[in-house]
Amino acid sequence: MSNTIIDTSFSFPGQVNVYKGKVREVYRLENDIMVMVATDRLSAFDVVMPKGIPYKGQILNQIATKMMEDTADIVPNWLVATPDPNVAIGHACEPFKVEMVIRGYMSGHAAREYKAGKRMLCGISMPEGMKENDKFPDPIITPATKAEMGDHDEDISREDILKKGIVSEEDYSILEKYTKALFQRGTEIAAKRGLILVDTKYEFGKTKEGEIVLIDEIHTPDSSRYFYSEGYEDRQEKGEAQKQLSKEFVRQWLIANDFQGLEGQKVPVMTDEYITSVSERYIELYENITGEKFIKADISNIQERIEKNVLTYLK
Question: Under DSSP, is residue 274 helix (H, G, I), strand (E, B) or coil?
Answer without folding.
Answer: helix
